[in-house]
Specification:
The protein has 6 helices and no strands. With 166 residues, the chain is mostly helical. The radius of gyration is 19 Å and the shape is elongated.
Length: 166
């Protein structure tokens, strides 16, 4: 039972994280909007680098990108909360039932990985050369986030056996 409860707790902790990040991005919209603006416009990357043709200075793309990030964070939170509730309801069930109950948590973790690995590392970090910026570089933070998500994903995805009575 301890392992099942830890899987539920870790899912809720990451849900809280994603929810707070989404909430903070809404409440302090301007701060992180500037981050997206600078990353996408590539205005703090190395001068005259060969990748500058990828930059976008269109505010509509900045807004769309930022809202996609916030939506992904919120969806991560909601899926993890919903998934943790399903796991909680099935915590005493046979292993096969509990294992089938993990899909919502796994989906939430996948969306979180999509945001912080694909969005920040692949798109922001490499496509828009965020790594070149000393000011607007979120790769280190994103790394901490997606490694935590990956660790929980591996742990949650481990098969659970039937509970031992007695």
């Amino acid at each position: 039972m301890t392992i099942r409860l830890v899987k539920i707790a870790l899912s809720l902790m990451l849900a809280a994280f994603a929810g707070i990040v989404a909430f903070d991005n809404l409440v302090d919209y301007g701060s992180n909007y500037l981050f997206v603006e600078h990353v996408l416009s590539m205005d703090t990357t190395f001068p005259h680098n060969a990748l500058l043709g990828r930059a976008t200075t269109n505010p509509a793309w900045w807004q769309l990108s930022y809202w996609a990030i916030i939506a992904g964070e919120a969806v991560t939170c909601l899926l993890l909360v919903a998934g943790a509730l399903v796991l909680w309801r099935n915590r005493y069930e046979r292993g096969a039932v509990f294992n089938r109950s993990k899909s919502c948590v796994i989906a939430g973790l996948a969306v979180g990985f999509l945001i912080w690995f694909f969005g920040f590392m692949v798109v922001g970090g490499e496509w828009f050369a965020m790594w070149q910026s000393k000011i607007w570089n979120g790769q280190e933070s994103a790394f901490r986030f997606y490694v935590a998500i990956a660790g929980v994903l591996i742990f949650v995805n481990q098969r659970d056996d039937d509970l031992v009575s007695g």
